[in-house]
Amino acid sequence: MPDLVLFLFIPIVWGLNFVVIKAALPAFASPEAFNALRWALAATTLLVLVGIRRDPLGIAPRDWGRVLFVAAVGNVLQQVTFINGIQLTTAGHAALIMGLSPVLVALANAAWRLEPVSRRTWLGIAFSVGGLVLLLHPGTGRLPRAAFWGDLLTLASAACWAVYTVASRPLATHYPPVAVTATTVTVAALGLVILGLPALRAERWGDVPWTAWGALLYSGGLTLAFGYAIWSVAIRRIGTARTAVLANLNPVVAVGAAWLLLGERLDVWQALGAALVVAGIALTRR
Fold first, then answer.
1. Which residue, among 74, 90, 102, 83, has the nearest Cα to 228 in the 3D structure?
2. For the CA atoms of the chain, what is the radius of gyration?
3. Each residue of 29-77: pLDDT tens digit?
4. How far apart are CA 219 and CA 236, in angstroms?
5. 174: closest CA among 115, 218, 223, 235?
6. Which residues, other chains included, contact 211 with Cβ-Cβ below 8 Å and sequence gap of 6+?
7. Which residues, 6+ apart, have CB-to-CB distance to 51 below 8 Å?
């Protein structure tokens, strides 16, 4: 897969995902129902993809502890906090806070000496963080009161995503990335479906519009299934810190799309922040 695809797919598809989810959630009885369905779809899509590619799904017994940890923290807990966070706050705000995950990844790499972080990468992270600070400028719009709790949940989700990024690299280097992703996503999907069973039973399926089903296909199939697979490939090729910084483009795409499609306002400070984020990402590329 060309590196250009990695550098375009992750920010564009995942950036738009914030807007798609935010627009679709009101159509479902609860975010847990939406989450359970999209993860079941993602797991099914990945298993079909693995079958087509004929990738081996075998995981050595010594690595199953890591697989379960990655699935529990990096997928289940990350998604529970994310889906409830984005319901309470705005799509743009959720994307901006999730953009903090590269800082957490770099700190984890430095603390545990898992991957060397060059001065250029630190400079890129500094630019990106500076951009995120400007992007978080409240602008001219007022956030709902519940947004504070949504922001906290989203911050917890960003921390879980950092754990996923760091903890999954040994798996991605020893097994085919798509196979690893299919395994962890399938395990996580089982957990999320179990957690979502009460919401699924209470859902009035006849009232769900076709646009919400389309959002489910986009978020579960394209964003989760193919997105996680491409994320694993990126970690394997360019490392955790640089892959995580690449995700800083997600807020740029999300804020712009939320402004155009959801009416969330974008001011001059946020535009300047977006430029700094792009500059930070450029500094991390060799």
1. 74
2. 18
3. 899 999 999 999 988 988 887 787 777 777 888 889 999 999 999 999 9
4. 24
5. 235
6. 23, 24, 27
7. none
